[in-house]
């Protein structure tokens, strides 16, 4: 097996995002939630994700916005976020290896943890 390269270009981010969401769309637990929410708006979502990850990993100001609000009302809980992270890590580990790859996995894990806890908090508060 050939050595895997690290994430280093926008094309790598596009590959990461496209393959990750291809796996998400097929997943029996979280796929229906994403497909129902996005319907025919996958392309704009993918573009937003390219920009988001470019900002996070390369410190390029391609994304502006607040990622939490669109997720706040989704019918998800910790189980869904655990699956999201499992798919993310499996997908990325099959394609890339290196410090930026590890940074992406750490950032995704932290984001999933935060989103899961914030959603639970808002639900418990009746917000």
UniProtKB/TrEMBL annotation:
<dbReference type="Pfam" id="PF01152">
    <property type="entry name" value="Bac_globin"/>
</dbReference>
<dbReference type="InterPro" id="IPR009050">
    <property type="entry name" value="Globin-like_sf"/>
</dbReference>
<dbReference type="InterPro" id="IPR012292">
    <property type="entry name" value="Globin/Proto"/>
</dbReference>
<keyword id="KW-0479">Metal-binding</keyword>
<keyword id="KW-0813">Transport</keyword>
<protein>
    <submittedName>
        <fullName>Group III truncated hemoglobin</fullName>
    </submittedName>
</protein>
<dbReference type="InterPro" id="IPR001486">
    <property type="entry name" value="Hemoglobin_trunc"/>
</dbReference>
<keyword id="KW-0349">Heme</keyword>
<keyword id="KW-0408">Iron</keyword>
């Amino acid at each position: 097996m050939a050595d895997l390269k690290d994430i280093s270009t926008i094309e790598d981010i596009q590959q990461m995002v496209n393959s990750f969401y291809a796996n998400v769309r097929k997943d029996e637990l979280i796929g229906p939630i994403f497909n129902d929410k996005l319907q025919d708006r996958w392309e704009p979502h993918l573009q937003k994700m390219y920009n988001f990850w470019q900002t996070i990993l390369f410190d390029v100001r391609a994304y502006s916005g607040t990622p939490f609000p669109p997720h706040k009302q989704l019918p998800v809980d910790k189980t869904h976020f655990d699956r999201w992270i499992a798919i993310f890590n499996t997908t990325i580990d099959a394609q890339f290896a290196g410090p930026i790859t590890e940074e992406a996995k750490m950032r995704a894990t932290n984001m999933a943890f935060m989103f899961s806890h914030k959603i639970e908090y808002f639900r418990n508060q009746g917000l």
